[in-house]
């Protein structure tokens, strides 16, 4: 009989270093996507394709970088988010990257990343951006499924999404993949298939944002007409936990689960799987599946579970929501111990 099972948490070690986000809401986007509310997600008013807005972002950033340098701030990674960076009107991509390069030379910036669409990453564009100092591209893939992409008006196919990821890697840039499960056109199994395809592409990081209905978006109109039903919170938790387990097993760092709680976002969510502690719940569920698997391998009711202390906050999910599941396995306050070892032990 197996006396005890030891296992480690499968999450890859986090990347170290602080990220300095620069928001360019909707800048460079060929159109507004059905679900997108970058202004409310980020709490930043949109910078349109108009150069004057980008000039204002640039001027503020230049000032802030100089002040940070004067103040002796620790080096960090600069990240251009919220729009389609690789499709910004000329000369903005090169202007922003030249600014970043100046502060890289002076030791403040260590790395530069941007977010963009998979249909805006032609090899020559990526080569040019890399030569100017770009290190990483996060692609807003959302889905690899033609039906979901068409129903969501993304304007590209699953093949383009895959090709976009390959182009980023072939350009020698680090790849990030953002998925948006529960879009119009969703169907059972789609998200797990998307997560598996994403894992196959071996991105450095992934972000998983279940689709929300946000005020003043075209998706809100569909939802009001009864033509779109978002995922429930329970479905989102279960689907995300399964995808997280899969991505961890393939050494992909999942750096975001659900949109970050911003006041401007929360006030404008009309429907969908939103909870400020969604990430904690999902990580807890993923961990529960690992413990269940260990109990199966143990082959009997466990008498004790040692949990590395750094996982204490997620073991029982949010507000002890998973306590009953652990009790069903025979594990409770008396039999779960938090320890200073890096591995779990089930006896
Ligand atoms: S989802 Fe991406 S491409 Fe679409 S409008 Fe929003 S930022 Fe632009």
From TrEMBL:
Gene3D superfamilies: tm_1862 like domain. One of its GO terms (molecular function) is metal ion binding. Its cofactor is [4Fe-4S] cluster. Residues 15-256 form the Radical SAM core domain. InterPro entries: ELP3 (IPR039661), Elp3/MiaA/NifB-like_rSAM (IPR006638), Radical_SAM_C (IPR032432), rSAM (IPR007197), rSAM_horseshoe (IPR023404), rSAM_sf (IPR058240). It holds the Pfam family Radical_SAM_C. Keywords: 4Fe-4S, Iron, Iron-sulfur, Metal-binding, S-adenosyl-L-methionine. SMART domains: Elp3. GO terms for biological process: tRNA wobble base 5-methoxycarbonylmethyl-2-thiouridinylation. This is Radical SAM domain protein.
């Amino acid at each position: 009989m197996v006396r005890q099972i030891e296992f480690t948490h499968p999450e890859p070690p986090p990347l170290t270093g602080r990220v300095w986000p620069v928001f360019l809401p909707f800048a460079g986007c060929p159109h507004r996507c059905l679900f997108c509310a970058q202004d409310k997600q980020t709490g930043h008013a949109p910078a349109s394709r108009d150069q004057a807005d980008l000039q204002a972002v640039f001027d503020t950033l230049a000032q802030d970088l100089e002040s940070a340098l004067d103040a002796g701030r620790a080096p960090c990674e600069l990240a251009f988010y919220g729009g389609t960076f690789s499709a910004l009107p000329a000369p903005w991509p090169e202007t922003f990257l030249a600014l970043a390069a100046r502060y890289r030379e002076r030791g403040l910036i260590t790395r530069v990343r941007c977010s963009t669409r998979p249909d805006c990453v032609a090899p020559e564009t990526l080569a040019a951006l890399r030569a100017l100092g770009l290190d990483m591209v996060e692609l807003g893939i959302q889905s690899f499924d033609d039906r979901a992409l068409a129903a969501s008006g993304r304007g590209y196919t699953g093949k383009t999404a895959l090709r976009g990821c390959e182009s980023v890697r072939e350009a020698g840039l680090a790849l990030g993949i953002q998925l948006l499960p529960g879009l119009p056109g969703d169907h059972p199994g789609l998200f797990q298939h998307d997560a598996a395809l994403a894992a196959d592409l071996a991105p450095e990081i992934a972000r998983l944002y279940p689709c929300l209905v946000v005020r003043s978006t075209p998706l809100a109109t569909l939802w009001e007409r009864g033509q779109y039903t978002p995922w429930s919170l329970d479905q989102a938790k279960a689907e995300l936990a399964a995808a997280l387990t899969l991505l961890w097993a393939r050494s992909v760092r999942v750096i975001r689960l659900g949109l970050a709680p911003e006041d401007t976002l929360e006030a404008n969510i009309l429907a969908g799987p939103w909870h400020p502690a969604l990430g904690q719940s999902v990580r807890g569920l993923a961990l529960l599946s690992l413990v269940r698997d260990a109990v199966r391998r143990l082959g009997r009711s466990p008498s004790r579970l040692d949990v590395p202390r750094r996982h204490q906050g997620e073991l029982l999910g949010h507000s002890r929501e998973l306590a009953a599941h652990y009790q069903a396995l025979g594990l409770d306050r008396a039999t779960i111990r938090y320890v200073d070892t890096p591995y779990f032990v089930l006896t």
